[in-house]
Amino acid sequence: MSQLFDLTGRRALVTGSSRGIGRELAAALADAGATVILHGRDAQRLAATVEEFTARYGHERIHSACFDVTDESAVAEAVSRIETEIGPIRILVNNAGIQHRVPLLDLEAADWQRVIDTNLTSAFLVGREVARGMVERGTGKIINICSVQTDLARPTISAYTAAKGGLRNLTRAMTAEWAASGLQINGIAPGYIHTEMTQNLVDDQQFNSWILGRTPAARWGTVADLAGPAVWLASDGSDYVNGQTIFIDGGMSVVV
Ligand SMILES: NC(=O)c1ccc[n+]([C@@H]2O[C@H](COP(=O)([O-])OP(=O)(O)OC[C@H]3O[C@@H](n4cnc5c(N)ncnc54)[C@H](O)[C@@H]3O)[C@@H](O)[C@H]2O)c1
Q1: What is the DSSP string of 134-168?
Q2: Ligand 1 contact via 161 beta carbon (within 6 Å)
């Protein structure tokens, strides 16, 4: 049974994995045996994470790539370098993302675009580049990190909500075109997870008590809560799961 979830010998690129959710997903895949390519934009922070992962998993299994996921040519160059120097990517986790909180009437077009580019266009750019090799090889797993905002809106995060909703449909579009070539593309939609991105919300007493009351599980999610579903979607255990978005939200999206 455990062989179903064994990722030994599989190479995984996790975008935005120098911290937060991405870092924990990268560790979960490495714990399941994968060779991991850590990724970030901040070279210094990335190097610190690489050092820590290398101490845990050994040199051979930990690599890194530093590039902006919204920059088309940087993405193409980086994916090509990874595949030439390290080897074919078997698992891609499109995790890099940003938030920007401002009422819709005050939202600047440039900020709208930045949020869409980082949360949605990036998954297209990195996904397309990586899928070229996966389609040729006839195998691959892509996991797009969505959000409860894939399904639910909330004031002040309109661009993020639009991007994450789009990401679910991009997951379906990728499935429509690549599933027949042996790829499985799915989404993970975390609820409210305590990370650096949400620290300010955890510290906000009013917001924090709203979360606790609004979540059937009555707690914030932890990055560890995402590990099992990520390993499952990266493994042979999900070979006939196609185009789904799995909500990991303590029940928030199914209870009013
Ligand atoms: N924290 C939550 O509660 C929560 C809930 C649902 C979904 N998510 C999603 O999970 C993902 C990770 O969130 P997090 O909370 O760990 O955030 P985080 O800010 O801690 O990490 C985001 C990562 O993305 C990277 N990144 C951002 N823009 C980039 C760019 N242009 N190029 C390269 N890298 C870039 C950052 O460097 C960082 O490493 C995001 O897609 C986010 O939308 C988070």
Answers
A1: HHHHT-EEEEEE--GGGT---TT-HHHHHHHHHHH
A2: no
Q: Answer yes or no: is pLDDT of 1 > 60.
A: no
**Three-state SS for 222?**
coil
pLDDT band at 89, cuts 50/70/90?
Answer: very high
Q: If you take atom 20 of ligand 1, which residue's CA is the nearest one?
A: 20
The three-point CA angle 71-77-82 to 5° equals 120
Which tens digits make up the pLDDT trace of 111-146? 999 999 999 999 999 999 999 999 999 999 999 999
Q: Is residue 187 lining ligand 1, measured as CB closer than 6 Å?
A: no
Taking the centre of ligand 1 as the mean of its atom positions, its distance from the CA of residue 195, in whole angstroms, is 9
Query: Coil, helix or strand for 13?
Result: strand
| Ligand 1 center to 179 CA (angstroms) | 27
- Here the tokens at position 116 are 């869409």
Domains in the chain with CATH codes: 2-246 (3.40.50.720)
What is the distance in A from the centroid of ligand 1 to the CA of 250?
20
Our answer on whether the CB atom of 144 is closer than 6 Å to any ligand 1 atom is no
Is 160 annotated as catalytic? Answer: yes
In percent, how much of the chain has pLDDT > 70?
100
Contact 230, 36 (CB under 8 A): no
